[in-house]
Amino acid sequence: MKIALLGYPLSHSLSPAMHTAALAHVGLRDWQYEALPVEASRLAEAVERIRGEEFAGANVTVPHKEAILPFLDGLTPVAQAIGAVNTLVKRDGRLLGHNTDAAGLLADLQRLGVDLERRRVCLIGAGGVARAAVAACAGAGAQVRVVARRREQAVALEQVNRVEVFSWTRLGFRQASDHCAVVINCTPLGMAPHVDETAWMEDVSPPPYAFFYDMIYNPPETRFVREARQAGLSAATGLGMLVEQGALAFELWT
């Protein structure tokens, strides 16, 4: 039996190593976790391949978490509310989309001692990853602000969530992060191999006392995290979230 990882690119991903070790640990040594780099134009074809008898399901990562929805047979209520999936599970011949990202993020923030209730949270990005972050933070009682590069994504977020959206400008970053207790990068900016990039706008001072969280986990210390720490702030990458959401997905498949 196989489990796939669908995304593009995938060279940065630790999911294959993590899930291969997990499968061996529980004695499923005849199962395989396989990375399948899939460009957008081949996504429908890849989903059809997952429907084959040899696959139990799949993980879905950037940039397909929203684009894959039309090719599925159904969504869980959580995935439907978020509008993005990161896990596919086959049940009774149907391919269902799940989202374990929101629960994984919330679990990791709780592990790190980050309190969200009645706190202002600034999310950078408005794609599928950000949708899960909005659900997690808003569900925990936070006031969510979003800095969006793409206006159409921001509009879509506003339609289904109570969030404030700000432009991808210095002024937008200053306004969105003002008095925020937590800042979360939901973009791929800074992900290996593009380690010199960062989602934080240059020449904008970070909010004092804020906790900076980068949902990227490779490299081990992103520029986003490093510069926050250099400014005297607490910060963490998304490695803990990777483990938390991965454990939830693993339970669904096995």
- Describe the largest sheet: 6 strands, mixed
Report the helical percentage.
25-40%
Strand order of the largest sheet: 2-1-3-5-6-4
The CATH topology of the largest domain corresponds to: Rossmann fold
CATH architect. name of the largest domain: 3-Layer(aba) Sandwich
- Give me the Rg, rounded: 18 Å
Notes on the structure:
The protein has nine helices and twelve strands. The protein has 254 residues and is an alpha/beta fold. The chain folds into two domains: 2-99, 3-Layer(aba) Sandwich (Rossmann fold); 102-238, Rossmann fold, CATH 3.40.50.720. A six-stranded mixed sheet has the order 2-1-3-5-6-4, with helices on both faces. Strands 9-8-7-10-11-12 form a six-stranded parallel sheet, with helices on both faces. Helix 1 crosses helix 9, helix 4 (101-111) crosses helix 5 (128-139) and helix 4 (101-111) packs across helix 9. The longest helix is centred in the last third of the chain and has 15 residues, at 239-253. It is globular. The chain starts with a strand and ends with a helix.
Give the arrangement of secondary structure elements.
Elements: E1 2-7, H1 15-25, E2 32-37, H2 43-50, E3 55-60, E4 74-75, H3 77-82, E5 87-91, E6 94-98, H4 101-111, E7 120-124, H5 128-139, E8 143-148, H6 151-160, E9 164-167, H7 170-177, E10 182-185, E11 211-214, H8 223-230, E12 235-237, H9 239-253
Parallel strand pairs: 1-2, 1-3, 4-6, 7-8, 7-10, 8-9, 10-11, 11-12
Antiparallel strand pairs: 3-5, 5-6
Helix pairs in contact: 1-9, 4-5, 4-9
